[in-house]
Amino acid sequence: MPHRWAMEDMRLAKRYPHDSRPRGVFITATDTGVGKTLVASALVACLSQRGLDVGVMKPVETGASRSVKTQSDGARLRRAAGSHDPMAEVCPYVFRLPVAPLSAARAEGTTVRVATIMRAFRALCQKHALVVVEGVGGVHVPITASLNVSDIIYRMKLPAVVVGQSGLGGINHALLTLHALRRRKIPIVALVLNRPRPLRTKTARVQEQSTMSLLRRLAVVPVVGPLPYSSSVNRNWNEGLVRLAGTAPITKLARLVLARIIHEGSSRKRADEKRDGHSEARGLAPPSAAVPVPLLRRGQAPKRRAPVPNRMSKG
Asked: How many domains does the chain fold into?
């Protein structure tokens, strides 16, 4: 039985159907190694457990190999969603060298083509109610000679979730990342603060409390966390992920993501209705709109549309 909040969000999703434009969220971070894959996978698991059809994507991954599929970030995301999408769509580019994508691609004598990433992204959007995309490193990490991660987020037209660390140093990194996204006019759903290691001293606990308190005041976005450190995730990824997906911080993040998607859908609908009304007032035919695509539960088939009668037929 889905949680009550999930049922409410599903009712809202049906009340405000969305058009065919991208629906989902992009998970980025203040740095590498702060828990981006953990947060993205837990969010996907939380949404999937509540009946939503979630697609996943990791456009570029470095320090990985397609031969060791189960260890890669892309494979973990895919497993969290219970997805059967081809890895060529989930993770179009995989490089062995654990460096920035631009350098990793050059080391293998190739380049990352944004058109390839966007083609895979659009294919996933066509198949799923929403798509969770995980980036690589931080927002300024170079993907090509002229484009970085923030350019990919901007082209996908997705809101962002920023993952950062809850301890010392987390304030500056988080605020710089939020500022960079705002400069690109990329909407921000939330800042998620992760505890990457256990708090073993009183000083560490005070540092975390200070970071959390100040960022709640300065970030000007919802601050989620801290996500508790879990040794079980390191021992058994799947088991630890299931536990994390049910925690209050991840549940809160899932609600924020769904609320953002529903809000954007209803805003687009109002904008389209306003635009069409202006067109009709000027005696112009309204532009052809995309067919609304509601958020569907996993396994739920879309309703068939009634055939449109042929007005040119005789009779």
From this structure: 1
